[in-house]
Task: inverse folding
């Protein structure tokens, strides 16, 4: 919807929780055509994984686990 309403000329970052969209050739073509960049990998690596609690880490996030063990 943003593509049609705002008609931005700048590269825009788009995020979706629909992982299958990011493997679709049609979706990739749509992104390129409208000067959009998907953020799934960056979102996961920068925001989700560092704070997500892991059972194998004693229910600590990776950042907290490393801080406590000074890895």
Result:
């Amino acid at each position: 919807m943003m593509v049609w309403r705002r008609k931005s000329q700048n590269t825009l970052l788009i995020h979706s929780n629909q992982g299958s969209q990011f493997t679709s050739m049609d979706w990739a073509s749509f992104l390129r055509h409208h000067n959009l960049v998907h953020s799934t990998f960056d979102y996961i690596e920068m925001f989700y994984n560092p704070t997500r609690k892991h059972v194998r880490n004693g229910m600590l996030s990776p950042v907290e686990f490393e801080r406590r063990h000074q890895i």
Remarks:
- The first strand starts at residue 12 and ends at 14.
